[in-house]
Amino acid sequence: MTDATGLDDDELSAWRSFVEMHHMLERHLVKHLQRDFGLSDSDFEILVNLSEAPGGRLRAFELGRATQWEKSRMSHHLGRMEKRGLVKKEVSDARYPDVVLTAAGRAAIAASAPANAARVRELFVEVVGPERLAVLKAASDDVLAALTEHVDACASSRKDAQHADD
């Protein structure tokens, strides 16, 4: 049963299965990060991005772009992480300070990343298998490209509407 804008039974079943799998896997991984390492998923995301950056440092707006977080969320979360000694702010050549991974932050990501990767391998990579993993990657890349195009079109439409009001 479908109409021009709805999903048929197979499409709806696939979508719901995907959403349930994503949520359940993410919650399971987050639970282990919190229980085993005292890290939230947000902490882990920041630590991963900083650990992969040259010198373990990025500007807050670069972290915001990488995580797709709003400026206020980034600011509040970095403040909490700084109080826990995972990151610090350092003066840079730019207008705003750099966010820098501390020794404690490096230790936290060094301890938690291998365990998280092992769970991802066990519960996702090995279950899906190499052939379906390649198909899933291609499908994910296609969806990401469509999303990027949609986001860009929405942003362009908003700018056009703002200029029309001027």
From TrEMBL:
InterPro entries: HTH_MarR-typ, MarR/SlyA-like, WH-like_DNA-bd_sf, WH_DNA-bd_sf. Residues 32-132 form the HTH marR-type domain. GO terms for molecular function: DNA-binding transcription factor activity. It holds the Pfam family MarR_2. GO terms for biological process: response to stress. SUPFAM superfamilies: Winged helix' DNA-binding domain. This is MarR family transcriptional regulator.
